[in-house]
Amino acid sequence: MLDRLPHVLLRVEGLAVAAAAVALYFHEDFGWILFVALILAPDLSFAGYAFGPRAGAIAYDTVHTEISRSPSARSGSSPAPAARPRSR
Description:
Oligomer: single chain
Largest sheet: none
Strand content: under 5%
């Protein structure tokens, strides 16, 4: 049981991050088309395999890690709520 714990914790963490991201996205009243485009955007890194397996693996792993998203999230790089009008 304990040997599976890291795998289970990583899955639960991924689910929590995904649920929070979707909730915040729709809380800010963005549209469905942009949502689909942004969900599929990390998979465009798969094109790195055109430059060989090593370059493809590096590109794919770099885009799919959450470490690269953390600094931008902490720095507050998202637009301020007052920057765009809200529809009511």
